[in-house]
Amino acid sequence: MPEPTGRRARKKAATRQKIAETALRLFLERGYEAVGIREVAAEADVAVTTLFSHFPAKEALVFAEDADFARRLIEAVTDEAPGAPLVPALRREVEALVRHCSSDEAAPVYHLIDTTPALREYEAAMRQRHADALATALTGTRAGSPTACRALATFTVDAYALARDADEPSAALDELFAMIEAAWAAGGPARP
What does the pLDDT look like over 150-170, one tens digit per residue? Predict the structure, then answer.
C-alpha cells in the first residue's frame, strides 16, 4: 500500500490497519462467526462508527488489502507505456498477489476464508468488482473491444483464484497466463 502523506492521512491509515489486524487476530483465535463487530471495535479501541468508516461490512475486515489489489491491477494497465504488452504487466501483479497469499503466514487466513461461507461469498463478489474495474480500465485504454477487455479482466482475476488454490501456484500461473496470452493475441488488437 502506498505510504499516506500528511499527519491526518497517516493516522487514518494506522487506525485502519489496527482495526484490520485486531479483527483478523480475533477471527483466527475464536472463529469468524464467534466474533462481533462491537468486540472488534472495543479490542481495537475505536468506536463502532469509526470501524464502519473504514470497513463497510464485517467481511471486509478480512480483506483489508482489497482496494490495494484492485488499484495495482488497474495501474498495471494504465501506467504501462503505450504499446507495451498488457498481459505480462497483469501477470506480474497477479503473481505478486499469489506469492503473498500462498505464503505460510497467509495460510491460516485462507483457511478461515475457505471454511466460512460468508467470507467465500464476499471474496467472490470482490473478485467480480475487481474484474469489472479492470475491464473498465482496459476499455479506457482502447486495448480491445469491450467484450475482449471484459474477458481479459475476468480471466486475469480468476487466474489469481485458481493459482492460489493450486498445489504448484507458479506452474498454474504459467499455464493460465499462456492461455490468457494466446486468447488475447487471437482476439485483442495490439495496444495503441
Answer: 999 999 999 998 998 899 999
| Comma-separated ranges of CATH 1.10.10.60 domains in the chain | 7-58
Is 66-187 a CATH 1.10.357.10 domain? yes
pTM beyond 0.70: the answer is yes
| Closest among 57, 52, 45 to 18, alpha carbons compared | 45
**For residues 141 and 148, is the Cβ–Cβ distance under 8 A?**
no
Instruction: List pLDDT tens digits, range 52-104.
Output: 999 999 999 999 888 888 899 999 888 877 777 889 989 999 999 898 888 88
CATH class, 7-58 region: mainly alpha
**85 backbone dihedrals φ, ψ, rounded to 5°:** -65, 135
Residue 120 to residues 117, 164, 192: CA-CA distances in angstroms? 5, 14, 38
From CA 15, how far away is CA 142, in angstroms rounded?
Answer: 39
CATH 1.10.357.10 in the chain, residues? 66-187
